[in-house]
Amino acid sequence: MRALCYGLLSALLLSIGWPPYGFSPFLFVAFVPLLLLEKELLNAKPRFWLLKIFCYSLLTFIFWNASVSWWVYNASPGGAVAAVLENALVMALAFTFSSGLKKRVTVSLRYFVFPVVWLSYEYLNHNWDLAYPWLSLGNGLAANYRLIQWYEYTGVLGGSLWIILCNQLVFYWISEKKHILRFKRRTLVVLLCLAVVPLIVSLGIYSGLAADSQNSVAKGASKKSINIVAVQPNIDPYNEKFSGDYQRQLEKMLSLASTKLDSSVNFLVFPETALTEEIWENDLTKVESIRMLEDFLKLHKQLTIVTGASTARLYKAGEPHSSTAQQFRDDSLWYDNYNTAFQLDTSGKIQVYHKSKLVPGVEKMPFPRLLKPLEKLAINLGGTFGSLGTQSERTAFVSAGGIRIAPIICYESVFGEYVTKYVLNGAGILCIMTNDGWWGDTPGYKQHLLYGRLRAIENRRAIVRVANTGISCFINSRGDLQQRTPWWQPAVISASLESGDQLTFYTRYGDYIGRAASFIVLILVLVAIVRRFTGSGVKG
Fold first, then answer.
1. Architecture of the CATH domain 225-356+391-497
2. For the whole model, what pTM was predicted?
């Protein structure tokens, strides 16, 4: 019974520490009950002790996942259950693997096992086919962004490392018996330094950044201003957006934009899948929505438009097609569907980007070699299983004035290292286009907003965030939110943003913490294997 209480207490602390409503200091002690449970089982080593650790940790992570991401149910009940169980299962496997590894390395190496295994898990969860980094521990500090300005050096995994190390120190301070007084004093000093020093550093960075009313850019960065208008049309994704008249929807967005447009505005931004017409990329000149935008540009010749769209590409007979392509029924032709961003201006050239970090199970079929045989069955049951097309390059759109803007579509904004690729390709401003209305008025769209501000801090880039509904806003490079729109209301906002050109340490090197942790885990595994075969395993 005590073991069950330990597991549930960890789940409770993780849940009440999570944004948007949580009190984040709880995250710094949330793993302590679970670590105490693990220690009891490691020392007692009852029958099937490792299986028991797995079961208790699985229960912990199911409770945590369900309590902070239940809102996925609004979009897909089955998807919500699958996401909770899959993510909790992988977390439990990581924790159990850490427990098993601790028993097979030297006592001095045990201190490193849990931090590096957990960071390796989070790194994996950013990069494999079932990528779901929504609950990476570093994301849990997004509401306290003034205290994590050093993410420009470490990214989200730096926050995860901070949380894990504090948890581990508190655990050792509570549980260690050897040389108790001296050990506890030293542990307490290290813990206080670990807790306080990053806060002081972060507040120093925050106050040191140049901040005006609209945006913040790193000192020394060259400044190039653009005036930008973002439109939140608030079109119901369930009852109107994909079944209503696409022309009337576009006319609504252009009408809203006109209320803020004047000759000084350079950019006009619409949200994800703003264009719902059936668009074939093979010949965009025949697309009515594109012609409507081009006519609008004739009235605003200085303007550049960035918009989301649902598109497809038809492969000619005999033309090689991608692995994500689907075949027309009773036909030899193939086609790809895309979640797309367009950039248009008066030059007549249309720049295209295809969303490439896709939602597993909804936009992407995970492990295609293994699950490909199920694709036809899934399509027959509603077409929700399969993959959209992607592209390998993180395209930064280039305006006539030389401004490079990153078209980041919805789920892509949760992946820190992924977003750095746009910046490395020259993006001076980040544009997050999303449609958060699927989740209803829940914590989901608020979490998504907070995670987006982390991308501003990591790359020191201003962000325009434009949602079909949810929250549209501007985010400066310190992470400050400006001109937040209300939920479920049409809105138009405008601002002058600075295009940055400096590269942060994190932009240059990405998730190096995760790669280093994974390398250390491999070394520890090798040590464990050697000790096992040389008969020098640790007892107790």
1. 4-Layer Sandwich (3.60)
2. 0.92
